[in-house]
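hi!! sorry for the late reply, been swamped w classes. u asked for the two structures so here they r. pasted raw, havent cleaned anything up. first the sequence of the first protein and right below it the tokens
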Amino acid sequence: MPIDLYYTPGSPPCRFVMMVGAATNVEFNCIEINLRAKEQYKPEFLEMNPQHLVPTINDHGFVLWESRAISRYIVNKYDHNSKLYPQDPQTRALIDQRLDFDLGTLCPSFSQFFYPSLFSGIEPNKTQIKKLADALSVLNRLLHGLEFAVPGESLTLADLCLATTISNIDAAGIDLRRYPNIESWFALIKVSAPKYREVNEQGLRDFKNLVKEVLKPKKAALIKTVISKVVFAEGSGKKAKLLKKNSKI
């Protein structure tokens, strides 16, 4: 029987869990939670998840939230020998490191850079801009010489998790061409992850629709200005830019 998945389509963590389900042939009964309508604060949801977070799963009475915990649980229970999360301790440690890098560095750096501008019209400060650029630079270096996010491995949980965050960064209009290792890796994940277009790109359309719905002309101009900021000095000391794409958000 399918696992109940409480989710929001535009959310990278929710799409990560959905891509793990696609890769392990685990079916979900998807129950959308409208965060803007504050459905996460309904008593029945708070009783299940007092942190009122998505994604949340209810696997026939077993409730779990936090996307990375959910993904490991799904693999450990339903696809124990999966290459997504191999048994080798060192390989798992590297996958966990990449997952933690997304949780603690990449995803929050993008959120702090982009969403205040989107929802409140607040331009990010230099520290927030530099944090996002630094996070992308670190990921670019981590991927040097690799096809996938973990050396010597095929597609893993690390790739699926990082790809959902990078896809939102890309969809926001931040040019990945300055990060060639990210760009080539991301292109590979798009064709390697099972049902990528069906699962992740549908959520990206929802994210883009949200951006269009929220943006007013003044905010749209601000977003374009924010994305085109000079943001950091690379190791050589030369300045780099996060360039906006030719295509609109």
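now the second protein. again sequence first, tokens right under
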Amino acid sequence: MIECFKDNAAYVLVMERLPHVTDLNDFLNDRGSLSEDDCRGIVHQLANALLRCHENEIVHRDIKLENILINPHTHDVTLIDFGCGTKLTVIPELQLSGTRVYYPPEWYTEGCYFGDRLDIWGLGIVLYMMVEGRRPFNNEEEIVNCKVYHSLDRKFSKSYRSLIKGLLHKDQEKRPTLEDILAHPWLCHYMQEPRVRRGLFSSLFKRFRR
């Protein structure tokens, strides 16, 4: 992110145009599903990026494959499109835009949600689609039932199944925090340094919150 400012109607974020990248949806369409090992690095980066956002009281609210850019050679990822983003609050949100197949069950059952837990839900959808090559849910009924089924033609680690179960938990209060995710057995051995520029995010989000 290069700059941010506020006009009369909205916050405006100016983000760098990255070379040699594609969105994660196109990347998966070309490559098919990814191995758990390939996904660990991607999820590690995304969890760290969301953690920096939440620490600065910003929620994204539209985590999906199309809003994640990936370098197909290095697997560096960048979270983009904060058009649905808003301030993190301690009261439930009553409005939701974004993409319907990524909506959480509490939106349909309660008509409200917490932004940070929505981001966790979106991360779970993204992880499932990367590893298993399909959506976990296709419609409102499946989202509300919240039954997660794994592909039968592949073997998945117990730690992956455990993480997905938590990320896509029907009860938003029982979803893991980002700190929990980064400490989860599926990720905790992934010791690569976060690729988020902490100082840049901190200074820009301070101005974003004014």
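hope this helps!! also noticed smth abt the second:
Strands lie at 3-6, 11-14, 22-23, 58-59, 68-70, 77-79, 86-87.
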